[in-house]
Structures are given as structure tokens and as C-alpha cells.
């Protein structure tokens, strides 16, 4: 399946989850160390805008990746940014482009399909982050988890994860009955069952 369709589904699921957020929720803690839900939504919104700009050829501009406080308009800002990135990824010829992603390294570009895969796993996991913050159930769509699995496996688990501001924390151990999605979360430094929400047991790990 086209990675853009898989990404669209992950983004739509995150939009549905963010739609549950109220202004009173914005101060809640999240699985992202030191971030409130307001901080997380600002990051998620900025990343959508940055990836949309990358798809349009403007990703090298660091300004397009900057997160800004969203205040009471966080949910509507997130929805608008999500729509923008989905539209940008759907443009004709986008899969033939190289995406500039300066957060991975200044001057680096990535094939479109690989870059969109990065975006896919980011929003699959961030949807879970939002659910954890709200204390509601998150159901990971099996096809999206399968698509995210090789991406998660390819992310280096080294000293860079211990640097301030690192995208992911060092990987964690998981119980023997961990699901494939549990494993992805743990590989990205999140405790799958450590925040009060049960992640559905959709299938056994490989």
C-alpha cells in the first residue's frame, strides 16, 4: 500500500484523538518527559507544518519547524496543520521528490517514501501519547503498526538518545506478552503499560 495512505490514516486517527482535548486538559503531563499536553500539541502541529513544507520543497528552512504556543486554539491549529500535511503528501509527483529534514541533520535529504515513513511512525506514537495524557484507550490499527515496525527497528538506539532534546529516549524492556505495538513504544523509549491505559493485544510479537 502507498505509504501516503497509511500516513493519512495515522494522521486522521491522531486528529480524532486530539479532538477529545479540552482547554482544561492542556496542562496535563504526557509520556514525553517534561512536556505538558499543550507542549506536545505544539510540537505535533509544528512537525506537520515542517513535513508539509518539506514535501513542497521548503523543508530546509528551520523556521518552518519551529513550535509555537497554541493556547486555547490548540485543537483547531492541530487539525488545520494535519489537513495541510495530508494535502501536501497527496500532490502529484511528491514521491519523486527529496525531502529536506534538517532536524535529522543540516543539509540532509531523504527519499519521499522514507520521509513519509518517519512521519507515519511519529504520528502513530504521538496519537498514543495524547491518549495516555487524557487517560483514554488508544487502539493501534494493525496495518499501521506493521508498517511502522521496520521503521522503529531502523532507528539507532545509541548515545544520541541521551542528549537534551532527543526525539526518543533510550529503549525500554517489555514483558514477554508484549504486542508488536508495545515493542514499538518500548523501542522508542515509552513504557507501554506504565501510564494507566491498556494497549489492546492485537497480535503476538514476532
Automatic annotation (TrEMBL):
SUPFAM superfamilies referenced in this protein's UniProt entry, alphabetically? DinB/YfiT-like putative metalloenzymes (SSF109854)
Per the database record, which ranges form the Mycothiol-dependent maleylpyruvate isomerase metal-binding domain? 8-131
Top-level taxon of the source organism: Bacteria
State the Gene Ontology terms under molecular function. metal ion binding
Gene3D superfamilies in the record: dinb family like domain (1.20.120.450)
Query: Which InterPro entries is this protein grouped with?
Result: CHP03086, DinB/YfiT-like, Maleyloyr_isom, MDMPI_metal-binding
Specify the protein name.
Answer: TIGR03086 family protein
Biological source species: Streptosporangium subroseum
Query: Which taxonomic lineage does the organism of this UniProt entry have?
Result: Bacteria, Bacillati, Actinomycetota, Actinomycetes, Streptosporangiales
Amino acid at each position: 500500500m502507498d505509504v501516503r495512505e497509511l500516513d493519512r490514516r495515522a494522521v486522521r486517527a491522531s486528529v480524532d484523538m486530539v479532538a477529545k482535548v479540552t482547554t482544561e486538559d492542556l496542562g496535563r503531563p504526557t509520556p514525553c518527559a517534561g512536556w505538558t499536553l499543550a507542549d506536545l500539541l505544539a510540537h505535533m502541529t509544528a512537525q506537520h507544518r515542517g513535513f508539509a513544507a518539506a514535501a513542497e520543497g521548503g523543508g530546509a528552512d528551520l523556521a518552518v519547524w519551529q513550535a509555537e504556543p497554541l493556547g486555547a486554539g490548540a485543537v483547531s491549529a492541530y487539525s488545520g496543520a494535519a489537513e495541510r500535511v495530508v494535502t501536501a503528501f497527496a500532490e502529484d509527483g511528491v514521491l519523486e521528490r527529496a525531502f529536506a529534514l534538517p532536524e535529522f541533520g543540516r543539509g540532509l535529504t531523504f527519499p519521499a517514501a522514507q520521509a513519509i515513513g518517519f512521519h507515519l511512525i511519529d504520528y502513530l506514537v504521538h496519537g498514543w501519547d495524547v491518549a495516555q495524557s487524557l487517560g483514554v484507550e488508544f487502539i493501534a490499527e494493525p496495518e499501521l503498526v506493521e508498517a511502522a515496525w521496520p521503521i522503529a527497528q531502523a532507528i539507532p538506539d545509541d548515545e544520541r538518545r541521551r542528549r537534551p532534546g532527543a526525539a526518543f529516549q533510550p529503549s525500554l524492556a517489555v514483558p514477554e506478552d508484549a504486542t508488536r505495538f508495545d515493542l514499538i513504544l518500548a523501542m522508542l523509549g515509552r513504557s507501554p503499560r506504565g501510564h494507566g491505559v491498556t494497549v489492546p493485544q492485537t497480535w503476538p510479537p514476532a
